[in-house]
Design a protein that fits this description.
Length: 371
């Protein structure tokens, strides 16, 4: 199976990457970013322009924001969703546009767990969305522990409830395939449902889904297995994790390495290495590239491709991460909001060749190969 070493030339930011049958034209991906711009989970013109312009901007992989597999698994009422077939059509249009620009369309599939029914960040008023304001109850988690004292007390998922979530991830995967996605990323980070099963801080169950490492990872492994059964062999499956909770007694990097090994055996191709979000108040030493060492260690020790993400903002920084084998891909979020053409600008800085939409070629002259 293609792995981190399956590259055609010495790795650098503009070297292509083959993952199963999917070829990424370079190592730059658009990190999933909630847009809080949907009505009833539907994508619309905003998503077309937001995602489409980053494909025009030269990114190799354009991932949607966290897309809810169940309506109750949305973070906010305005989240993107894929819990019904009607939501496929507009996504298919967006993905066709992304592909026409030479980028690969992908989706992040998610369930918000105990962070569901909260307000989009720019909304004024209460953080928790009341039912009369479009919020919903109950919300679900491994254990009946609210994220913070002001948040909703979630209902602990029973076994049929866990089965329903696993099936919802598989159903959404089938819809993503129909829409034309070529990469799926499971969101198991930032304190949302699947991460909250992994972390002993939020999972205090005493059944086979809580307690030991084997038990806390069970829900995620079941989701992966169910998705792999419907997601074609030819397409890669990614998992985003919080490599550490940054809290003593929480999920940590050693467990992340062990998890990555297990996931690899279940057909996961790449681990996207983020961190934090399990509990409020964690002290996170954020700074340029602060999560890169997680991607590096998981790549080395679990022998699986990784994404480095978090405060990667320059061409040189991104190129160095790839050249030194710390990760196979870099994902950028906020820098892509500042500069949708980050990849085109980076190619110019690093004097690399890149495909430019003919409509824009006059603004991005390419180096003359004869000089
Ligand atoms: C506006 C915004 C929305 C985000 N939404 C998501 C999301 O839907 N799923 C996710 O896994 N991370 C999300 N994140 C986190 C980013 O994907 C990324 O991991 C984080 O911002 C660090 O990268 P950066 O320093 O390049 O912004 C979001 C970040 C931003 C800024």
């Amino acid at each position: 199976m293609p792995g981190p070493s399956n590259i055609e030339e010495p790795a650098h930011l503009f070297a292509p990457l083959q993952l199963r049958d999917v070829r990424l034209r370079n190592r730059i991906g658009v990190s999933p970013m909630c847009q809080y711009s949907s009505v009833d989970g539907f994508s619309n013109d905003w998503h077309l322009v937001h995602l489409g312009s980053r494909a025009v901007g030269g990114a190799a992989l354009v991932l949607t924001e966290a897309t809810a597999v169940l309506a109750e698994g949305r973070i906010s009422p305005e989240d993107l969703g894929l819990w019904k077939d009607e939501q496929i059509e507009m996504l298919a249009r967006i993905f066709r546009f992304i592909e026409a620009q030479g980028a690969v369309p992908g989706m992040q599939l998610a369930h918000a767990g105990r962070k569901a029914s909260t307000a989009a960040p720019w909304k004024t008023g209460e953080h928790v969305v009341a039912e009369r304001e479009g919020g919903w109850r109950p919300i679900f988690a491994p254990s009946p522990l609210p994220f913070s004292p002001d948040d909703i007390v979630p209902e602990a998922l029973d076994h049929p409830g866990i089965k329903r979530v696993v099936e919802a991830f598989a159903d959404a995967t089938r819809r993503a395939l129909e829409a034309g996605a070529k990469v799926i990323e499971i969101h198991s980070a930032h304190g949302y449902l699947l991460h909250s099963f992994l972390s002993p801080l939020s999972n205090q169950r005493t059944d086979e889904y809580g307690g030991s490492f084997e038990n806390r990872t069970r829900a995620l492994r079941e989701v992966v297995a169910a998705m792999r059964a419907v997601w074609p062999e030819r397409f890669p499956l990614f998992v985003r994790i919080s490599a550490t909770d940054w809290v003593e007694g929480g999920w940590d990097l050693d467990q992340s390495v062990a998890l990555a090994q297990q996931l690899k055996n279940l057909g996961v191709d790449l681990i996207d290495c983020s961190s934090g979000g399990a509990v409020p108040g964690a002290k996170i030493p954020a700074g340029p590239g602060y999560q890169v060492p997680f991607a590096e260690r998981i790549r080395q020790e679990a022998g699986i491709a990784t994404v480095a993400v978090g405060m990667i903002t320059t061409a040189e920084q991104a190129d160095q991460i790839i050249r030194t084998g710390q990760a196979d891909l870099v994902f950028l979020a906020r820098e892509f909001l500042r500069d949708p053409y980050f990849a085109l600008h980076s190619a110019a800085r690093l004097k690399a060749e890149i495909q430019i939409a003919p409509q824009y070629q006059r603004a991005f002259p390419q180096p003359d190969p004869k000089k």
